[in-house]
């Protein structure tokens, strides 16, 4: 079975001086029938903010991955 996954960012907001982003993913089969939908909210930064970041990037910094 082949699935098509369509992710999208649906919202970003500031709550209690923290920046959040909401993303949604929709999975469809070959005929286009929706099999599942997932919506998640993530905290992006632990720094105080009064408005979401502007531009293409949501994160204010890029950190090296620790392995």
Question: How is the secondary structure organized here?
Answer:
Blueprint: E1 4-15, E2 18-28, E3 34-45
Structure explained in plain terms:
The protein has 67 residues and is an all-beta fold. It has a domain of 42 residues: Complement Module, domain 1 (Ribbon), CATH 2.10.70. Helices cover 0% and strands 52% of the residues. The chain has no helices and 3 strands. Strands 1-2-3 form a 3-stranded antiparallel beta sheet, with no helix packed on it. Strand 2 and strand 3 form a beta hairpin. The chain is rod-shaped, with a radius of gyration of 16 Å. The N and C termini lie far apart (34 Å).
Describe this structure in a few short sentences.
This protein has strands spanning 4-15, 18-28, 34-45.
H/E element order = EEE
Q: How many helices does DSSP assign? A: 0
* Radius of gyration over all CA atoms, rounded: 16 Å
Distance separating the two termini: 34 Å
Main sheet record:
3 strands, antiparallel
Strands ordered across the widest β-sheet? 1-2-3
CATH architecture of one domain: Ribbon
Short descriptors:
67 residues, mainly beta, Complement Module, domain 1, 52% strand, rod-shaped
